Every structure is written in C-alpha cells, then in structure tokens.
Amino acid sequence: MTNPHRFSGKVAFVTGAASGIGRATAVAFATEGAQVAILDLTENALSETADAVRNAGAQVLVLACDVSKPDQVEAAIGRVIETFGSLDIAFNNAGVENNAAPVAAIDLAEWDRILDINLRGTFVCMKHELAQMVRQGSGVIVNTSSGAGVRGVAGGASYAASKHAIIGLTKSAALDYAKQNIRVNAILPGNIETPMMDRFTNGDIQKAIDLEPVGRLGKPEEIADAVLWMSADLGGFVTGAAISVDGGWSL
Fold first, then answer.
1. Helix, strand, or coil here: 250?
2. For residue range 96-147, what is the model confidence (pLDDT) as tens digits?
3. For the chain, which terminus, N or C, has the lower number of CB atoms within 10 Å?
C-alpha cells in the first residue's frame, strides 16, 4: 500500500531515470513524499519522467550526466546538495545492455563501454554519494545489479561481468560504512517490461517470457516497490544484501 508520507523530508537521487525501472522508481519516491533528483544522458530524455514526478506532487531536479565521467557526476551530486540540502537515498540504476557475442568475439571497445557505464558509473556515483552521506551522518544506497549478476548469460559476458562486480562492490561498501548509519544494497531484476528488454530481444518479448518461471515479465513498478522497501525504515536492518526480484529466473 502506498504511504504518501513515508519519505517526507527525504531527498532521493535516481540515475537512469529516463524510462523503465528508473522512471518507475522516481515516480514511486515522489508519490511517497520524497523530493527527487533524476539523472540521465540528456534533459530531453528526462522530460516525461520529470512531468510524472511533478504530477505526483514532488519537486524535481533534472540532471544531464554521463555517469562514467567523474567530473560530471561530482557536479550533478553537487547540484542535488545545493538544491535540496541533503542526499538521503541514491538509486544507482543507470546501465546499458551489451551487443550479444561469445567472449572471443567481443570487441575491446564494446567491453570497455559496458564496464564504463555499468560498473565504473556505479562506482563513481557511489564515491560521491557516500562522501555526502558520511558528512550528513546517514544515507541509503541501492545499486541495480541483475539476475545476470548471479548467473552466466550466453553472449552476455560483459554485461554479466559488470553486474557480478556491482554485487561485490555493494557488499564491500556495506561493510565500509555499516557503522556510519549508511546502508548499501543491490537489487537484481529479472526480465522486466522496459525499453532495454525490447532492445535486447529485438522486439521478440516472448523469448524473455519463456525464461521466466512465473510465465510473465516483471513490471518496472514491482522493482520500484522493492527499492522503496530497501530504502525505508522497514529495511533498516538490511545492508550488503543482493535481493533478487526476478520471478525465479536466477534460481
């Protein structure tokens, strides 16, 4: 059940917010009382998300940024602090899918592209988020890994490597900051109804449905619900966890 006051007075920062899981989570935070900063590559890509956040009754800050570029990330998080005064929750969701290929056929530039955005981008965001959370004495971070973070994916070595690494990064950061009132967890979505899934399957969504034991794709809002639980006091004793929300896909 939605609680319109659960995040009142809180500031939530969502990367990869232009569509899919990021958009659904930004809107969910807004619906439950948070002020929301949304980030993606361009401001134009964020226009629909920004409208949805405003319609949910929240103040929104729109940020254009390449998460693999440390100077851009530092500037973006600086704007969050300047605008809202704090950073209570960070959902590091920005990521891209790989071009399918067996390992020996992966172009080095393609490998670097996936790791730069998915892994380096998550690390760079965390680096600056954590610095602010230490200063203010509290915070919650949720990183988007994947079911591919706990199993192999034929033709998807670079993506799976990046998502496995995010889990290790999450667990290590959780230990680093456990005594500083900062929790760090990872969410592992399965096959979800998103533009990324459309691209990954070349529009043949049935292929993804067939992989799901529950017989359907997940909805972005179902991932958002889990992220909000992990970010709220209800998840207050949870840190260093990698929580699968995937309809049984990774079992």
1. coil
2. 999 999 999 999 999 999 999 999 999 999 999 999 999 999 999 999 999 9
3. N
**Is 159 one of the catalytic residues?**
yes
Q: In what order do the strands lie in the sheet with 11-15?
A: 60-64, 35-40, 11-15, 89-92, 139-144, 182-189, 242-245
Would you call 196 exposed, middle or buried from its count of C-beta atoms within 10 A (0-12, 13-18, 19+)?
A: middle
Q: Which helix (H) or strand (E) holds 165?
A: helix 157-177
Of 3.40.50.720, 1.10.540.10, 3.60.110.10, 3.20.20.140, the CATH number of 11-187+220-242 is 3.40.50.720
Which tokens hold the place of 199? 């691209």
From residue 14, alpha-carbon distances to 10, 28, 67 in Å are 13, 11, 12
**Placement of tokens 């998300």 in the chain:** 49
Catalytic site residue from 13, 84, 123, 159:
159
CA-closest candidate to residue 10, choices 122, 91, 85: 85
In this prediction the pTM is: 0.95
Instruction: List the one residue out of 33, 22, 148, 138 whose CA is nearest residue 91.
Output: 22
What is the residue extent of each domain of the chain? 11-187+220-242
pLDDT tens-digit profile of 51-93? 999 999 999 999 999 999 999 999 999 999 999 999 999 999 9
> CA 37, CA 173: separation in Å to the nearest integer?
23
Q: How many CB atoms lie within 10 A of CB 115?
A: 18
